[in-house]
Design goal:
about 35% helix; about 15% strand; binds zinc ion; TIM Barrel; binds N-carbamoyl-L-aspartate; alpha/beta; 3-stranded antiparallel sheet; 8-stranded parallel sheet
């Protein structure tokens, strides 16, 4: 540590632009972790069954607020799950009424909870045109699901086959390329217009695919899109810490019970919510970019979504933060990202 490096870092209150809060007992177990760290969060709609209409999303929002411990100041920003059958009028109504702020495109069978997703973007063309005309952002899980495409290539192939044509044909549509994992995605977002941005998770900044596969198979390092080669991790670190307004914080925190991860067919998803800011900050420090952290965590996302930045600040202080091996999420044991490690910054308060 350089002698002139700061002991504390104070930034405007941050937001998480991509989180899975789940439902039922698990919701009550995970929402306090996100609410402790973030003022707002984009809540993904891939429940079972998925949140495909205004009534469902509004009811889910109520359950989130009911699960929030008293005194915590947290605003869930809801999203609609797109299917082949989504009605453009329902989308426009929910957006106008403030029921949701965006819609999520899951290619069918791309990831956890995507079985009802879109089988071909041509099927939702009318929805996307309406979203473009009303200024409603499209959030994209960017992977093809073609069995012939290698899983490590699925994001890059999605750009060529689906995303690039979509952005070309609907230049007014605001698009968030969620949880980007490749150099190709970074380049695509950088070279696109101001209507295209991306979220980046902490895990894709910290790990490459070796972390998942060397010395044994490590299910807690497995999420989708899957971590790629080192060259891609380095491109993501460069993008996140560059100061570009096109990249912002989205944890993709995706809790699964330990038994569902440590299984013959383990679920995709990494639970990073409890130490998300600490995890990101380690990366910004290693990259010598502490001065860029506030933009990534607290400013770029609101600017893209056309929302005000949060009032108030949070402070992180240097100091050892041991990450537990497991976290009890209201009765469900979950292994968090960085389990058993020690992080170097602590979120105060
Ligand atoms: C997410 C989940 O578990 O809901 N899993 C993941 O690996 N990221 C779904 C998703 O965002 O892909
Ligand atoms: Zn996700």
């Amino acid at each position: 540590m350089a002698s002139d490096s700061p002991i504390t870092l104070t930034i405007r209150r941050p937001d998480d632009w991509h989180v899975h809060l789940r439902d039922g007992a698990l919701l009550a177990g995970v929402v306090p972790h996100t609410a402790r760290q973030f003022a707002r969060a984009i809540v993904m709609p891939n429940l079972s069954p998925p949140m495909t209409d205004c009534a469902g999303v509004a009811a889910y929002r109520e359950r989130i607020m009911a699960a929030l411990p008293e005194g915590m100041d947290f605003t869930p920003l809801m999203t609609l799950y797109l299917t082949d059958a989504t009605d453009p009028d329902e989308v426009a109504r929910g957006f106008a009424d403030g029921v949701f702020v965006a819609a999520k495109l899951y290619p069918a069978h791309a990831t956890t909870g995507s079985a009802h997703g879109v089988t071909d973007v041509a099927n939702i063309r009318a929805v996307l045109e309406r979203m473009a005309s009303i200024g409603m952002p499209l959030l994209v899980h960017g992977e093809v699901t073609d069995a012939h495409v290698d899983i490590f290539d699925r994001e890059a192939v999605f750009i060529d086959r689906t995303l690039a044509p979509l952005v070309r044909e609907l230049p007014e549509l605001n698009v968030v390329f969620e949880h980007v994992t490749t150099q190709e995605a970074v380049q695509f977002v950088e070279s696109a217009g101001a209507n295209v941005a991306a979220t980046i998770t902490p895990q894709h900044l910290h790990i490459n695919r070796n972390a998942m596969l060397v010395g044994g198979i490590r299910p807690h390092m497995y999420c989708l899109p899957v971590a790629k080669r080192e060259v891609h991790r380095l491109a993501l670190r460069q993008a996140a810490t560059s100061g570009s307004g096109k990249f912002f914080l989205g944890t993709d925190s995706a809790p699964h019970a330990v038994g569902l991860k440590e299984a013959a067919c383990g679920c995709a998803g990494i639970f990073n919510a409890p130490f998300a800011l600490e995890s990101y900050l380690a990366v910004f420090e290693e990259e010598g970019a502490l001065d860029k952290f506030e933009a990534f965590a607290s400013l770029n996302g609101p600017a893209f979504y056309g929302l005000p930045v949060n009032a108030g600040t949070v402070t992180l202080e240097r100091g050892p933060v041991p990450v537990p091996e497991q976290i009890d999420a209201n009765g469900t044991a979950i292994v968090p990202f960085h389990a058993g490690e020690e992080l170097g910054w602590r979120l105060l308060g």
